[in-house]
Please model this.
Amino acid sequence: MHTISDEQLSAFIDKALPDSEMHHINNLLAESAELRERLHKLQQADEMARQFFASQDDIPLPAGLLEQIQAHRPEAEVVQFQPRVRWPWAIAASVVLSVGLVWQLLSPAAYTATDRALLSMSSGSVKIMNAEERLEITRSELNSAGQFCRYFIVHTPARSEESSACWQGEQWLYHPPGSSRQYQPAGASEQPAQSLSADEEERWLRNLSQQTQAD
Amino acid sequence: MNIQHQNFQQQLLAALPAIRRYCLALTAQQHSADDLLQATVERALARWQQYQADTHFDRWLYRLCRNLWIDTMRREKPSDSLDEEHDTVLSSSNLAEQYETHTTLARVQAHMQQLSEVLRTTLYLVAVEGHSYQEAADIMEVPVGTIMSRLARARQQLSLAL
Model:
């Protein structure tokens, strides 16, 4: 008689026992035909499982699945968000955004994806920019100089930070993260900024759209 | 082009056969497995931003698939129990009579379908896909000891049907 359980034999099949126990069971197997038969049956169970799953490999994948994956595009998603709702993981500023803003300030000729988003999306919308960045537009206002300004948050997995941009000379003039709430154009009067309603914002966006398309 | 997205697509395409088999391990039925595979791919595409290169992509997909199965699709299949205490002990004589005229594959399918979901899935991960006990434990979010006992019971029940 031996006292080897099915659990031990099962682990023996997977070579998941300590060396000493593997050696011990090997010795018992050499002596016991009954134990060898038990082991053989457990091994046949594995063979049955392999047959079961291998049978599926001969069946074609569901129609359209491969095409669906190949046709997927990362920038295809624009999600409508409730205003002032932040991503749970969003905590601070985006270094990536800062680099991007400097680049945009230096090369204003072509409209970037951020430019286009600010020209077209209403406040409360979120645009997925790439794998790491989401752009959430929070509000619009006219600053003390009467310029149309938009406030937005760039969310990355590590942080979120609000920035702003004002439309000036047929381009967005971006203000670095942290300066958006204090921004005043040179020579500005003390006239307070004016928040825009959804309708007012829509009119501004429509006008800017016509203006940029005309250009 | 977004290189990270391309890598994601390639890994997803490469993982399809294994994920499809995993869907079969969960559902035990071909048509349900394909439905689950479709839903898993759609969820993976919708959440592709979670993709990180050089991480365990297959484990992420396995979990996505399993959570989807638990959250939604399994509800439509109430007869399939997760409770290991309710595993069916196969009767070799009954099954032999019931499937006497079937092909070998049909009998294999019947035996595999008689296993509970957790036993079938554990057996798949270790005996078919070759995952270690620790990897299977990570995927199924259970202790290694549970994997060991599930494997033994799965093999035991199938061997009774032989």
Observations:
- Chain B touches chain A through 49 residues (CB under 8 Å).
- Residues 81-162 of chain B form a domain with the Arc Repressor Mutant, subunit A fold (CATH 1.10.10.10).
- Residues 99 and 107 of chain B are 6 Å apart (CA to CA).
- The first helix of chain B runs from residue 3 to 27.
